[in-house]
Specification:
Blueprint: H1 2-32, H2 40-58, H3 62-89, H4 100-105, H5 115-121, H6 123-130, H7 135-138, H8 146-175, H9 179-184, H10 190-199, H11 201-235, H12 242-245, H13 256-269, H14 277-306, H15 321-339, H16 357-374, H17 396-414
Length: 415
């Protein structure tokens, strides 16, 4: 469950991010040239080009990717700071910002559900945005001091996402003029419409372009992380075709086959764009639900199965581990069904407005479980580890003492 959920959520990332970026680029062209109206096939072709570029960059050396990741991080933070300052300061509207009463008390419900339930459904964008905080874990084999650096990076990523994301949301709430127009305007791209609405055409396009640059670095980062997930699973023999997917290029020392497998999956998922915006939108929901399931299942097993036998690493939550784990499991049990609901109900619910998340995620997971029950359980015995896990074994201290004792006996015999 954990492995396949993580795999499904991860491989949806490059598709969803690059689909959004392709829509942003074509929207910018449409804003700059009112005579241009982009077509669905153009979104798909541009998304393919972006996936291709991501693949070319990701198949390079680890050292180059590390530098590229630093640049991407700096660009994202810089764009965020520019957005937070420029949007309210450069607003062409009068007044420049909305009142506190509007921001904190006005409710705009874009669904046919009650406000409380609609509020819960709104967590989708937040969950999807934060679902990549596990990236340090998947890249841990390529960094030093991983047992401390990886969990620390995960916590820092989540915390930065909270604080910086909160700043962005506040800026949007205080500067937006018409939420229905942003969501359902003529351009069909919320961020582009927002920048145009607040900053005007030229400045809005400039801010929108900066967002696109940041979005590209996100897509490239998703491709790197997902390719490492595919490689790790293939090295353990957990995926069909593992013997090809786990191959590492001798020159770049990176899993090139896994990289192009990931981009290929992204291209196939992107075909959902031809089924309509609701269908392609399910890719975003899949990423959120699958990743949440993958993150929470080990926490649940730690609480229920391992219990006190679990040996924490050197960087952990200490006494807060159990209550945090309980809250995490309760939250996921609550939110996952909510994310599967469509925005409309009753007579408005048709095959075009249905939420297909259950079908796509449930279908893949059903096939994976059937494959395991029919065939994989006969030969797959779990991950191939090179470090002895401490559950049901002696502690490292006792093992070290035993080795020293054996070495001493061996030395005496030699003498």
């Amino acid at each position: 469950m954990t492995g396949w959920s993580n795999f499904v959520g991860a491989v949806s990332g490059p598709c969803s991010v690059n689909y959004a970026l392709a829509s942003m680029i074509l929207t910018a062209v449409e804003i700059a040239n009112p005579d241009f109206t982009y077509k669905t096939y153009q979104i798909y072709l541009l998304m393919l080009a972006l996936l291709l570029l991501d693949g070319i960059l990701t198949m390079t050396t680890t050292k180059f990717l590390a530098r590229l990741n630093i640049i991407g991080t700096v660009v994202n933070v810089a764009v965020l700071l520019i957005f937070v300052v420029w949007m309210p300061a450069g607003s062409v509207n009068t007044p420049k910002i909305n009142s506190n009463a509007y921001v904190w008390t006005e409710v705009v419900n874009g669904t046919e559900w009650p406000d409380g339930f609609a509020f819960m459904m709104g967590f989708l964008s937040v969950i999807w945005t934060l679902s990549g905080f596990d990236a340090p874990f998947h890249l841990s084999e390529e960094c030093s001091n991983a047992n401390i650096a990886s969990p620390r990076a995960i916590v820092m990523t989540a915390q930065l996402g909270l604080y910086l994301g909160w700043a962005v949301i506040l800026v949007i709430a205080y500067t937006v003029q018409s939420i229905p127009d942003v969501l359902n305007g003529q351009y069909g791209q919320p961020m582009g419409t927002l920048c145009l609405q607040v900053l005007g055409k030229n400045a809005g396009l400039a801010m929108f372009a900066l967002n696109m640059i940041a979005q590209f670095s996100v897509g490239q980062g998703c491709t790197v992380t997902t390719s490492r997930i595919v490689y790790a699973y293939s090295r353990d023999g957990a995926l069909p075709g593992s013997r090809w997917l786990r191959k590492v290029n001798k020159r770049t020392r990176t899993p090139v086959v896994a990289v192009w497998f990931v981009t290929g999956i992204g291209a196939l998922l992107g075909l959902l764009v031809f089924a309509g915006p609701i269908a392609i939108g399910a890719v975003f929901s899949i990423g959120a639900i699958a990743q949440y399931t993958a993150f929470t299942f080990p926490v649940f097993l730690k609480l229920v199965v391992a219990g006190d036998k679990f040996r924490p690493g050197p960087w952990n939550l200490g006494r807060f581990s159990k209550p945090v784990g309980i809250m995490a499991c309760a939250w996921v049990v609550l939110i996952i069904p909510v994310l599967c609901f469509p925005a409309v109900k009753g007579s408005d619910l048709t095959y075009l407005t249905m939420n297909y998340t259950c079908l796509l995620y449930g279908g893949v997971m059903t096939l994976a479980l059937l494959w395991y029950a029919i065939d994989a359980r006969k030969w797959f015995k779990g991950p191939k580890i090179n470090v002895e896990h401490l559950i049901h074994t002696q502690s490292l201290e006792s093992e070290a003492a035993e080795r020293e004792k054996q070495d001493a006996l061996y030395t005496e015999k030699e003498e």
